[in-house]
Amino acid sequence: MDLALLKIILQVVLAVTSLLLVLLVLLHKGRGGGLSDMFGGGVSSSASASGVAERNLNRLTVTMALIWGASCVGLGVLERFL
To answer: What is the reported pTM?
Structure first.
């Protein structure tokens, strides 16, 4: 595989996972205190998500963060050594 193509693929993966991470973090339920209460997060405590949905959201967020980190490292290695 050409190195320029690999670099473009990693840049696209980085951009897509960056956007997904922002969206996934915004979907998380506020834990109280801080910015989530300022924007009305404390008011909707009765409409909380189920435990399974929150756990799946956590897993998806961590997976996206790992993919994001791996693409950052991959781009760094490409820039440094190749």
So the answer is: 0.75
Residue 35: CB atoms within 10 A of its CB come to 8
Please tell me what DSSP assigns to residue 33. Answer: S
- 63-76 residue pLDDT tens: 999 999 999 999 99
Domain segments of the chain as ranges: 19-26+50-82
Residue range 9-21, pLDDT digits in tens: 999 999 999 999 9
Distances from the Cα of 8 to the Cαs of 14, 67, 78, in angstroms? 10, 16, 11
Residues whose CB is less than 8 angstroms from the CB of residue 6 and which lie 6 or more positions away in sequence, other chains included: 78
Report the C-alpha gap between 78 and 59 in whole angstroms: 29
